[in-house]
Structures are given as C-alpha cells and as structure tokens.
C-alpha cells in the first residue's frame, strides 16, 4: 500500500526496502546512514544539518528537518529494528528541497491511512503512534510505501520559508 500527499507528483512505488541498502556500511557516499542505535540518530541529524546548510536552509526549516529526521530514525529503531536514512537535495521549480528517505526491512505498516489520520495508531512498540502524522504536518510532501517486506518513507522539506528567519 502507498500514500503520497502530493497531487502534482506521480505515485512512487518503492521495491522492498531490504533491497535498497547494504547493512554492512554505516555511512554510504556521505548521504546515507545506517540506523541501528540511538547514537546513529545524532549522526543522521548532523548529516542532515550539513546537507541543509550547504543548500542555504533557514534556521526554522532546519529545526523542522531535524525533527523529521529524529522521528523517522526513532521509527526505524522501534518498529523495524533499524534501517537507513538517506539525505539528498533536489532543485525544484519552487526552490531547493531536502529529501529524507527512511528505508527498512521490518514488518511494514498494516494501515497507512490510519497511521496518517492523526488518531492514535499504536504500533508494535506500544507507543501512541503519532509520529507519521506529525511528520506529515511538518513536511512539504510525504510519500509512503509499505508491505510485509519493509517500509519506505520519503519526506521533502523546502529549505526556505516565505518569511525567512
């Protein structure tokens, strides 16, 4: 099942997330980090800061980006036992965007619409399950693909806001 909040973009279907990354390396090509412990969340946020600052990201948007990275990493650890975060910059008509992709080979999300609805969606960790909904509220775009072989969440965050800080 997939969900994409951008009507302008075509639906993206991701292959099983387990095929998308190599577990043998913690950091790949300077834009990806394997997440397997809490310390890796800090590393992912630092990488996100470097990528965002290099693209001219405002302080407010950087705070949003780091919140999204933290929540995605937390989800990787809690629900899939780990995974990978990739960070890239895309130049689009509306300006540069940082693209954060979280991939795992966990059990998948049984009901994506329910997880994104803003209601409580308790996951296997027993947490209240508000993370993806919160990410959706912060992001400019979010796309999710999930099946029993893994989940891939792609989030786009513009580096500038209308009232720059």
Number of helices: 4
Low-confidence spans: pLDDT under 50, at least 5 residues?
4-30
Shape: globular
- Determine the strand fraction and express it as a percent band: 25-35%
Q: Estimate the mean pLDDT confidence.
A: 79
CATH topology (fold) name: Heat Shock Protein 90
CATH superfamily: Histidine kinase-like ATPase, C-terminal domain
Q: Specify the biggest β-sheet.
A: 7 strands, antiparallel
Write down the secondary-structure element order: EEEHHEEHHEE
**How do the strands of the widest beta sheet line up side by side?**
1-6-7-5-4-3-2
CATH architecture: 2-Layer Sandwich
Q: Separation of termini?
A: 38 Å
What structural keywords apply?
single chain, 165 residues, alpha+beta, Heat Shock Protein 90, seven-stranded antiparallel beta sheet, 32% helix
Describe the structure.
There is one protein chain. The chain is α+β, with helices and mostly antiparallel strands and 165 residues long. The protein has a single domain (2-6, 20-158), classed as Heat Shock Protein 90 (2-Layer Sandwich). The chain has four helices and seven strands. The chain has helices at residues 38-54, 59-80, 112-116, 131-138; strands spanning 2-4, 27-28, 32-35, 83-92, 95-104, 141-147, 150-158. A seven-stranded antiparallel sheet has the order 1-6-7-5-4-3-2, with helices on one face. Helix 1 runs antiparallel to helix 2 (59-80). The longest helix has 22 residues, at 59-80. The chain is globular. The model is unreliable at 4-30 (pLDDT under 50).
């Amino acid at each position: 099942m997939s969900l994409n909040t951008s009507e302008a973009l075509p639906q993206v279907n991701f292959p099983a997330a387990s095929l998308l990354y190599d577990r043998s390396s913690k950091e790949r090509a300077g834009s990806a980090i394997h997440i397997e412990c809490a310390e890796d969340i800090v590393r992912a946020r630092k990488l996100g800061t470097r990528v965002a600052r290099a693209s001219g990201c405002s302080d407010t948007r950087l705070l949003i980006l780091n919140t999204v990275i933290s929540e995605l990493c937390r989800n990787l650890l809690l629900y899939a036992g780990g995974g990978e975060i990739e960070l890239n910059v895309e130049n689009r008509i509306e300006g540069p965007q940082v693209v954060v992709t979280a991939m795992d080979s966990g059990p998948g999300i049984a009901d994506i619409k329910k997880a994104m609805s803003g209601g409580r969606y308790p996951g296997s960790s027993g947490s209240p399950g508000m993370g993806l909904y919160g990410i959706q509220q912060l992001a400019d775009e979010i796309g999710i693909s999930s099946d029993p072989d893994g989940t891939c969440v792609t989030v786009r965050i513009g580096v500038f806001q209308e009232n720059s800080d």
